[in-house]
Design goal:
The protein is built from 16 helices and 13 strands. By secondary structure, the protein is α/β, with parallel strands linked by helices.
Length: 413
Amino acid sequence: MVVSMEQEEAKSVQKYFEPLDKFVGIRVMQGNQFSLDEKDPPRNAREYKKLLIEACIDNPQDMVSNFANSLVDDLYELCLSVNPGMELSLVSVLRGVGAGRGSERLHSNFGSLERKLNDCIVGQREAVTNLVQVLKRASIGLREKHKPRANILHAGRTGVSKTELAKALAGLLPGYRLYMVNGSELGSPHEYANLIGSPRGYVGFDQGGTLTSNVLAHSKTIVVWDEFEEAHQKAQSLLLQVFDEGTLTDSKHGPVSFRDTINIVTTNIGTKEVERYCARVGFTSGWRNDCGFRDLYEKALNDAFHDKLINRLDMVSIFNDLNASDCQEIARLGLRKIQGVLLENRGLQFNWTQAVPREIVKYAEFEKFGGRGIKRAVGKIVEDPLADMLEREKDIKKVKVYCEGEKICLKRE
C-alpha cells in the first residue's frame, strides 16, 4: 500500500516499514535536493547508504535507535523503492564540474547501457545510439523540467526490434517498467477514454484511466505507443499533450505528471512506400540500409501524423532491415536463451554446431517477418523436438543440436 502525500514544493510518499510496523515518510528526491561532495565522497557502500537515508528521511537516528547498525540496509531499500535512480551502482561523483548539484553530479553509466542494448538488439546500432543520446541529454538537465525524459519515434518494417528495444531498455533501467498502448485498440473516437478515464456521467468514470493510473502508481514508466498510426486522432491528441505539457488529466485522480516517463512511438509507416520504390527501380532485399530512404520515411510520417506531433519528438530513428547475418545472430541469441533456461532449471547442458543458426535462417521467412520469423523458427524446429525429447527421456544431462544436410536434429550426449 502506498499513500501519496505529494505537494508541488516538497514531495513525500508514506511507505510501510515492516521492522518497525509503521509507515515512514520517504522524500521523493529531485535533481537539486541530493548531491555528493566531490572533495569528500563516501568511502564505501555503507556510507553512501547512510547519506541517502538521511537525505530521504527526516532524523532517522531519532526514529530508529540502532539506525547505524542493523536497519541501514532495510531503510536503504525503502528509500530506493521511492527513488530507484539513486541506487549505488547507477551513480558516480563527477569531479571538476564546479558547484553544480543534483542531476549534474549524479548520472547513469550510459556507455555500459549502450553496450548492453547492442548485445540484446541486433543490427540497430544507430537506433540504440540515438536512444542513449536522448536519455543522456535528459539526465544532465537539457530538457524542460515538466516534460518527459524522452519522446522518440521508431519507424521501420515489422520484426526489426522497434518494440524489442523498448523492452530491453525497461529491463536495464532500474526502477522503470514497460507499459504498452496498442494503437489498434484506439481506432474509434470514444476509445481514447480508456487511457484517461471516462468523462463524468459515463460508466467507469470513478475508475480512472488505464494509462494515467499506471503512471500515477509508477512514475518511472516506459510507455510504448505501439503502431500508433492506427489510433484515432483523439488518441493522437493525447500523445501530443504528453509531449507538449508533460501531463494528462485523469477523470478520477486529476492531473498526472509524465515528466519521468520515456515515450516510444512505434510505426510501420513508410515501409510500403520504400518497398514500392524498390520494386520500381529494381532493388532486391539487399537494398536494406544502403540507399538513403530516410526522405521517403519522413514524408510518409508527416502525411500520417500531425506536424505538431512530429516537431515535438526528440528523435526519429529509422530501423534497418535485417539481413541474413543479423538473423543468424538473432538465432544464436535464441539458442543461448534456451541454453540458460535449461542449465538453470534442469542442470542440463545444451550446445549446437555452427551450421544450426544458418539453417534456422533458411527455414524462417526473415525477409517478410524479420526477427519474429526467426523466433518462431527456433520454437518450431528446436524447442518443440527438444520438449518431446525431454518428455520421453527423464535422465538427459547433455543435448546437442546439429545438422544432417538441411535438416536440424537433436541428440543426447
